[in-house]
Specification:
The protein is α+β, with helices and mostly antiparallel strands. It has 3 helices and 7 strands.
């Protein structure tokens, strides 16, 4: 695992780390707008290499990102995390599978992951939500997410 630093951004914390191969990563948790319970503490999680370069075969990158996520959820047990894979290169479904694998191995036993797959224009993509099942009921969370997604979709038209 790489050492990382934490900074406070405008809408949530940023974690920064550099690899031994000269890549620099940002992991951010952006607090989303004011939503109803149980999405009242919704954060969007994003991670990227600053210059868009890829870190092939460096297990320490995923280990570091997972460590940052675990630290954040440990410090914020009432948060809900929202993750959307990058769709720019058409590999978003592969990224979604990789994130699912990471999540299954990370040891956050009481954390649930709900995935919502969207087919169609312009690309297929997966939207994931993570939350503590000791804090929130899975059925309530799923219902509220679906209601919120429906509301956001209807606002587009």
């Amino acid at each position: 695992m790489y050492e990382y630093t934490r900074e406070e951004g405008d809408d949530g914390p940023l974690f920064l780390f550099s690899t031994e191969f000269g890549l620099s990563y940002i992991v951010s948790f952006r607090q989303m707008g004011k939503l109803n319970y149980p999405l009242h503490k919704l954060y969007s999680i994003d991670f990227l290499e600053k210059k868009g370069r890829k870190g092939k075969s460096d297990i320490k990158i995923s280990t570091t990102i997972l460590s940052i996520i675990l630290q954040f959820i440990d410090e914020n047990p009432e948060c809900t995390l929202h993750y959307l894979c990058d769709i720019n290169d058409g590999k978003q479904m592969h990224r979604a599978k990789l994130f699912t694998r990471w999540f299954s191995l990370c040891g956050a036993n009481n954390w649930m992951k709900l995935d919502f797959k969207f087919d169609g224009a312009p690309e297929d993509y997966m939207l994931s939500f993570l939350f503590d099942s000791h804090v929130y009921d899975e059925e309530l969370m799923q219902d509220e997410i679906l209601l919120t997604l429906d509301m956001l979709e209807s606002d587009k038209t």
